[in-house]
Amino acid sequence: MDEAIKTEMATRLNELGGLLTLAARNVKIMHWNYHDKDFVSVHPWLDEVYDFLNDSIDEVYEEIRKGALPMAATYSAAIAAGAKDSALAEFDDKISYNNPETFHNVRGILDIIRYRLDSLSTFADEHKVWTVHEMSNGMLSKANQFYYFANESIMA
């Protein structure tokens, strides 16, 4: 991989890792602060979304390490990289979330993640970085499942 592609791949992976870190934090806040109907079903579903995001963080940073790419070294740096141009802000951990807000927020988070994953997958495909391409497509598939469930829950 030439140096310019390697640098761009590192930037994209670090931004995705940071975005996933911020998203996982936000989903966990909604999980802790969910107070509405359907608690028994929504609360564990938020755990599933969180677990997916958390596992994805690990996959992204493992891919960075395997490729010997530069990594955002701190939690704060990761969040800053993820929030860059993503329109995702840190959620307030003192706010309670109801059913419509929760599904709307999760859908919005996943929409941003899906866009980043699609962009990363395309870039990796164009430059024949097959491990990143496969990783991002796998994450995109799972993100789509959660996205469509959240979307359908809003419509219901």
Question: Secondary structure elements and their pairing?
Answer:
Elements: H1 3-32, H2 39-66, H3 75-83, H4 99-126, H5 130-155
Helix pairs in contact: 1-2, 1-3, 1-4, 2-5, 4-5
* Percent strand: under 5%
The count of domains is 1
Could you name the CATH class? Mainly Alpha
* Head-to-tail CA distance between termini: 47 Å
Beta-strand segment tally:
0
The whole-number mean of residue pLDDT values reads 90
Order of helices and strands: HHHHH
CATH topology: Ferritin
Shape descriptor reads elongated
**CATH homology group:** Ferritin, core subunit, four-helix bundle
Which structural class best describes the helix and strand composition? mainly alpha
CATH architecture: Up-down Bundle
Continuous helix count:
5
Main sheet properties = none
**What share of the residues lie within helices?**
over 70%
Radius of gyration using CA atoms only: 16 Å
Query: Residue ranges: pLDDT <50 for 5 or more in a row?
Result: none
Characterization of this structure:
With 156 residues, the chain is an all-alpha fold. It has one domain (3-155): Up-down Bundle (Ferritin), CATH 1.20.1260. The protein is built from five helices and no strands. The chain has helices spanning 3-32, 39-66, 75-83, 99-126, 130-155. The mean pLDDT is 90.
